[in-house]
UniProtKB/TrEMBL annotation:
InterPro entries: Mito_Enoyl-ACP_Reductase, NAD(P)-bd_dom_sf. This is NADPH quinone oxidoreductase. GO terms for cellular component: mitochondrion. The keyword Cytoplasm does not apply. Gene3D superfamilies: Medium-chain alcohol dehydrogenases, catalytic domain (3.90.180.10), NAD(P)-binding Rossmann-like Domain (3.40.50.720).
Length: 92
């Protein structure tokens, strides 16, 4: 299982059965610390290459977004608070 960001501040809920019967384990991971380690440079390059390949193949897509002018920031913030399915992208 991979979780990134933890923005909900809610604990993970996972089923007990797989942990018991399949010897599954969860381990924490802090991306910022991994980025700061120069020893991970080659692995990071491979990761970016794999992500780019997934995007080219259509297997990984960016989130939907709504383009907004900076002057419309009030409406963008209101929309962001209601509709979590789209990101707000500001353009000037």
């Amino acid at each position: 299982m991979v979780t990134y960001g933890g923005m909900s501040k809610m604990p993970l809920q996972v089923p007990t059965g797989p942990f018991i019967f399949n010897d599954i384990r969860l381990t924490g991971f802090w991306m910022s610390r991994w980025y700061e380690d120069p020893g991970n440079l080659e692995e990071r390059k491979r990761m970016y290459a794999e992500l780019c390949a997934w995007m080219k193949a259509g297997e990984l897509r960016p989130p939907q977004f709504q383009k907004r002018r900076l002057e419309d920031h009030t409406e963008a913030l209101e929309a962001a608070a209601v509709d979590f399915s789209k990101k707000q992208l500001f353009i000037s």
